[in-house]
Design goal:
Shape: globular
Structural class: mainly alpha
EC number: 3.2.1.4
Organism: Dioscorea cayennensis subsp. rotundata (White Guinea yam)
Helix content: 40-55%
Distance between the termini: 49 Å
Enzyme class: hydrolase
Largest sheet: 3 strands, antiparallel
Family: Belongs to the glycosyl hydrolase 9 (cellulase E) family.
GO biological process, one term: cellulose catabolic process
C-alpha cells in the first residue's frame, strides 16, 4: 500500500475514533442515567418493600433481622451482590448520597427525581435509627460475609445466618460510629426544609454518635472481627472530622468547628476518596464553609485544608505533578478492585467544588495553571461519559443504561428468577449450579447499578465470577446521583 494511502487510512481511523467519542458524549442522556441510578437503590433494599417500590422483581426479605438480639433491624441496603448489611460502607453510602442531594437539590427537583432521592436517603437513615438503640450502642452488621458467600441465594430465600453485630462502650468502633454520625448529620441538612421533625431526630442521633465515637475509641474490626474481613478500617481520625464538619454544617455550633481547629491534623494530601478514607471529603466541606464565610477566617488552618484538597483535585484532573494514572481510553485508574468507586466519589468532590468556586467567581489554581469551574465540570463529564459508554468498548458500565451493558453482572438476586415468577426455594448450592455458573444473561435487570469497571487497559470481562470488575456496591452509585443531577441540568 502506498504511504499516502496508509496515512489517509490512519487519519480516517483517528477521525472515526474521535467521532465515536464525540457522538457518545453528545448522545448520553444524563437524566435517564440519573433516574436509573436511583432505581438501583430499590434493587438493594432489604426488609418489607413499600407500596412505592418500582423494581417489581424484588420481594420482601430478611424480615427477622435483629431477632437474635431481640430488636428490629429490618430495612437498610444490601452491600452489593451479596446479602449482607455492612454498616461502615452503608453509612458512607448515605453520607455521599445526602451530600449530592444538598449540593444539587435544584437539579434533582428540575428533573423530577428529588422525591426518589429523598426516599432512597430515608430508607438508609431509618435503618440507622433502628441500629442506634442507645447513645453508646450501634449495630454495625447483619449477616455474616463468610457464610453468605458460601451460598448463591436470592435475598428473599436466605437460609444463611442473620447474626447481628454491634459496637458499644466496652467494644468501641469510633470509625463506624463517626461515619454513621456524618451520615445522619448530612441527611438532617437534606431533610431540614421538607421534614424538620425528622431532621431533628437524625441530628440528635448524629450528636450522640459523635460523642460515642470520641469517648470510646477503637477500630470497629477489633470489636467485630467478621466485619474486618470485608471492610476493614485503616483509622478513625478521618471519621471524627467527617462527622464534625457535617455537624457544623448542620448546626453552625462552634463546638464542632473548634474540634476541627484543635484536632491537630488536616489529613494531608490524599490520593483517593473512599468509604475508608474520608479526608478529601472533610477538606472539601471545610473549603465550602470557608468560601461561604461560615468559619473564622482568621484561622490559617482552613487554608491548609483547602490546599490539600487542591493537591488532590489537580493530579486527578491531570494538572498536577504526579497525576492519577489514566487508561489508554481515558479512564482514571486507581485500583484493580472496583475502580469506579474512586471515580464516582472523586467526581462528586470536583463537581461540588466547581460550583463552590463558581458561586464566588473564582477559579482553581494548579500551580501556575488556571482551571475554570466550567473546565472542572467538563472533566467530570469525561469520566461520567466513560462510565456511560464513551469508551473503547462502547459499553455502558451502568446496568440497564444504553444498548450494551454488563448482562452477567455479579448479583445474586438479579442472576436468578424473581421469587414472583418462581416462588420455590432455590437452595444455597443450587444457586451456584443453576445460575451463578450459567452462561446466560441475568433474568433480572438491576437498573442503574454501576459495576467495578474495566482494568487499567480498558479491558472488561462480563462474568459473574469476575467480582472485582462486575459487582456494583452501593458506594459506587451514591456519589454519582448528585453528579448526574449536576450534568443533567
Amino acid at each position: 500500500m502506498a504511504l499516502p494511502s496508509l496515512l489517509l487510512l490512519l487519519l480516517l481511523g483517528f477521525e472515526c475514533f474521535s467521532l465515536f467519542f464525540i457522538q457518545s458524549h453528545a448522545s448520553i442522556d444524563y437524566s435517564q442515567a440519573l433516574t436509573k441510578s436511583l432505581l438501583f437503590f430499590e434493587g438493594q433494599r432489604s426488609g418489607k418493600l413499600p407500596p412505592s417500590q418500582r423494581l417489581q422483581w424484588r420481594g420482601d426479605s430478611a424480615l427477622k433481622d435483629g431477632s437474635d438480639n431481640g430488636i428490629d433491624l429490618t430495612g437498610g441496603y444490601y452491600d452489593a451482590g451479596d446479602n449482607v448489611k455492612f454498616g461502615f460502607p452503608h453509612a458512607f453510602t448515605i453520607t455521599t448520597l445526602a451530600w449530592g442531594i444538598i449540593e444539587f437539590e435544584k437539579n434533582l427537583v428540575s428533573k423530577n427525581e428529588f422525591g426518589h432521592a429523598m426516599e432512597a436517603l430515608k430508607w438508609g437513615c431509618d435503618y440507622f435509627l433502628k441500629a442506634h438503640i442507645a447513645p453508646d450502642v450501634l449495630y454495625v452488621e447483619v449477616g455474616d460475609g463468610d457464610s453468605d458467600h458460601e451460598c448463591w441465594m436470592r435475598p428473599e430465600d436466605m437460609t444463611t445466618p442473620r447474626t447481628s453485630y454491634r459496637v458499644d462502650a466496652a467494644h468501641p468502633g469510633s470509625d463506624v460510629a463517626g461515619e454513621t454520625s456524618a451520615a445522619l448529620a448530612a441527611a438532617s441538612i437534606a431533610f431540614r426544609k421538607a421534614d424538620p421533625h425528622y431532621a431533628d431526630v437524625l441530628l440528635a442521633h448524629a450528636k450522640q454518635l459523635f460523642q460515642f465515637a470520641n469517648e470510646h475509641r477503637g477500630l470497629y474490626q477489633q470489636s467485630v472481627p467478621v466485619a474486618g474481613k470485608y471492610y476493614s478500617s485503616s483509622g478513625f481520625d478521618d471519621e471524627y472530622q467527617w462527622a464534625a464538619v457535617w455537624l457544623f454544617h448542620a448546626t453552625d455550633d462552634k463546638t464542632y468547628s473548634d474540634y476541627l481547629a484543635n484536632c491537630g491534623s488536616t489529613g494531608g494530601v490524599r490520593s483517593l476518596f473512599s468509604w475508608d478514607d474520608k479526608w478529601v471529603g472533610v477538606q472539601t466541606i471545610v473549603t465550602k464553609l470557608k468560601i461561604e464565610q461560615r468559619l473564622d477566617n482568621n484561622n490559617p488552618l482552613w487554608n491548609k485544608y483547602e490546599s490539600e484538597m487542591v493537591q488532590f483535585i489537580c493530579p486527578t484532573i491531570q494538572k498536577g505533578n504526579n497525576n492519577v494514572k489514566m487508561s489508554p481510553g481515558g479512564m482514571l485508574w486507581w485500583q484493580p478492585w472496583n475502580n469506579f468507586q474512586y471515580t464516582t466519589s472523586a467526581m462528586l468532590v470536583i463537581a461540588a467544588h466547581a460550583d463552590h468556586l463558581a458561586s464566588v467567581g473564582a477559579n482553581l489554581m494548579c500551580g501556575s495553571v488556571t482551571v475554570t469551574p466550567r473546565e472542572l465540570i467538563e472533566f467530570v463529564k469525561s469520566q461520567v461519559d466513560y462510565i456511560l459508554g464513551a469508551n473503547p468498548k462502547g459499553m455502558s458500565y451502568m446496568v440497564g443504561f444504553g444498548s450494551k451493558y454488563p448482562i452477567k453482572f455479579h448479583h445474586r438476586g438479579a442472576s436468578m428468577p424473581s421469587i414472583k415468577s418462581d416462588p420455590n426455594l432455590i437452595g444455597c448450592k443450587d444457586g451456584f449450579e443453576k445460575y451463578f455458573n450459567s452462561d446466560g444473561p441475568n433474568p433480572n435487570v438491576l437498573e442503574g447499578a454501576v459495576v467495578g469497571g474495566p482494568d487499567a487497559n480498558d479491558q472488561f470481562e462480563d462474568q459473574r465470577s469476575n467480582y472485582q470488575q462486575s459487582e456494583g456496591p452501593t458506594v459506587n452509585n451514591a456519589p454519582l446521583v448528585g453528579v448526574l443531577a449536576r450534568l443533567a441540568a
